[in-house]
Amino acid sequence: MKDFGKIIIIFGIVLLLIGIIFYFFDKLPLFKLPGDIIIKRKNFTIYIPIVSMIIISIILTIIINLIFRK
Q: 28 and 15 in contact (C-beta within 8 Å)?
C-alpha cells in the first residue's frame, strides 16, 4: 500500500504542476521561440514548433528520470 500511496502523491504533484503551467501559459514564451517554423500563405498557416517540442522533451525527460530513479 505504501507504493500505491507514493504513486497517488506523484500523480497529484504532476497534476498540480500541469495546472500551474496552464494557468500561466499565456505568459510563457513557449511556442513563440526563434526556432519554431511558421509558414503563412493566403489560404493556410502551417506551424511547426521544433524548438518548443525539444525543450518540452528535455524537461519531461528530466522529470520522469527524477521520479522513477531507483
A: no
